[in-house]
Amino acid sequence: MSSSQSSPSSSSSSQNRLAGLQFQGDVAVVPVNREPARTAVPEAGVPVVRGQAEANTHLLLAIGQAFFAPDRFGGGMVLGVLNVADGATAYLAHPEHAFSGIAPGTYELRRQREQADQARLVAD
User: Fold this and answer.
1) Cα(70)–Cα(100) distance, integer angstroms
2) Does residue 102 have a pLDDT over 90?
3) 8-state DSSP, 3
4) pTM
5) pLDDT attached to residue 23
6) For residue 19, which of 112, 105, 114, 96 has the smallest C-alpha distance?
7) Do strands 46-49 and 119-121 pair parallel, antiparallel, or not at all (unpaired)?
């Protein structure tokens, strides 16, 4: 986590979190009904999209029990599955977008793409 980002405090973990569809730059958080992830999000977080020179990385953090499994078969669009346990909050942290709180539930983290002359990933 960069020095310009401070970690979320446990006192704010139940505030400012969304349970529905949300976006943070080029990453979408999409509620899904699928097998939940089983690998705990470590205290240091999980980079879900790495920016150039690590400067614009979307970092997944958690207060309480949250689990993330990278998707190796999503063709680059599905980044992985996130499961946030009851009473917990996950966060996507980004130096330009701050923290986005994610309420309990199961989600796919996805890249966004745009259609120009050809389909391409959204640049953040």
Assistant:
1) 19
2) yes
3) T
4) 0.76
5) 77
6) 105
7) unpaired
Distance between CA atoms of 108 and 88, rounded to whole angstroms? 17
9: which residues sit within 8 A by CB, 6+ positions away? Answer: none
C-alpha–C-alpha distance, residues 105 and 81, integer Å: 11
Instruction: Tell me: pLDDT of 32 over 50.
Output: yes
Query: pLDDT at residue 106 above 70?
Result: yes
Token digits for 71? 């998707």
* Nearest by Cα to 56 from 109, 98, 96, 114: 96
Question: Beta strands of the chain (E only): which ranges?
Answer: 17-18, 22-24, 27-31, 46-49, 58-63, 66-70, 78-84, 89-94, 98-102, 105-111, 113-115, 119-121
Q: What is the pLDDT of residue 108?
A: 93
Give φ, ψ of 35 to 5 degrees. -55, 125
